[in-house]
Amino acid sequence: MNVIVTGGAGFIGSNFVFHMLEKYPDYRIICLDKLTYAGNLSTLESVMDNPNFKFYKVDICDVPAIDKIFAEEKPDVVVNFAAESHVDRSIENPQVFLETNIIGTSVLMDACRKYGNIRYHQVSTDEVYGDLPLDRPDLFFTETTPLHTSSPYSSSKASADLLVLAYYRTYGLPVTISRCSNNYGPYHFPEKLIPLMIANALNDKPLPVYGEGLNVRDWLYVKDHCKAIDLIIHKGKIGEVYNVGGHNEMRNIDIVKLICKELGKSEDLITFVADRKGHDMRYAIDPTKIHNELGWLPETKFEDGIKLTIDWYLNNRKWWEDIISGEYQNYYHKMYDER
Ligand code: NAD
Ligand code: TDX
Known about the structure:
7-stranded parallel β-sheet; alpha/beta; binds thymidine-5'-diphospho-beta-D-xylose; 3-stranded mixed β-sheet; Rossmann fold; 12 helices
């Protein structure tokens, strides 16, 4: 089987590439990535020489380039991870989110239609459902919860989801969508909460918590997300949406305190800063459908996953130090210096 993985030089995409190459030695994995600020070729170093792996530096919005790759590689399945993924950046500059997340999705699906009605999987997010109030712990997002987005990022992802479902209904393209909660684990770009706090704590820098840190996220170890997508592309029902989440809700402030504890750093590093505009309060996924239909369950407990993650950042300092010493410095100053 030939599997195109877009965004495979990013956080979840790279973990998915590793998972697929290890689990299916007879598959070819073809990675398409533009290598934006979030894509990192060094992440894929260990698989670059694998004869079952091929890398193309390409923008998913580039129609002729995508057409050419589809014609040459003859994929059986396309899994689309490629996206602008950071909510804070979408608040600063929405345009590129609309281009990659919406137009890019349609370019890939058009190529799927053109080259033989190819199986297409869209990696989406729980953020398309908006947020839940803190005082209603009984509420969860199901696949039928209405889309109700808050940020340019989540709006672009919801738009893409609607397009994917339209291509199913209108053209009969064999699609599925997964909507996952917050991932954490190796190769997570240090602009996001957990790796940012680990990197700052290790450098004894302030730990910038937005607002009062009471916002709740439902954290899932990245490898469990990859296993869910693997199941969906092999056994999922065409035209369906699957929620993926770990029933592991935590307040931001508790995550940051836990990171301080694990690293032996003082909680005095914690600094409360101005809140994110339109900040979603709580995300909580009901993963009953994927459990009942496909037998998926998260395997990694948060207490184990966070230790594995912290160990990974301790053992792979060069990976994230190279990132935070470059263009990231400008980003960090702009976002945090006068916050
Ligand atoms: P990431 O930002 O770490 O990686 C995105 C990758 O896409 C990068 O390698 C980047 O170079 C590439 N890319 C960006 N624009 C591109 C373009 N125009 N053409 C080709 N490649 C391009 O993101 P991530 O956290 O790994 O997220 C992957 C996917 O999963 C996204 O679609 C995101 O919406 C979704 N998702 C993420 C989370 C999470 O917690 N990180 C949770 C649910 C869903
Ligand atoms: O410096 C910070 N301080 C802080 O308090 C950062 C970067 C974040 N936060 C808060 C904001 C959120 O409540 O931590 C929480 C998590 O923030 P992010 O890591 O930016 O993730 P989130 O906004 O929840 O979105 C993530 O999950 C859903 C991914 O980035 C998305 O791509 C995914 O769709």
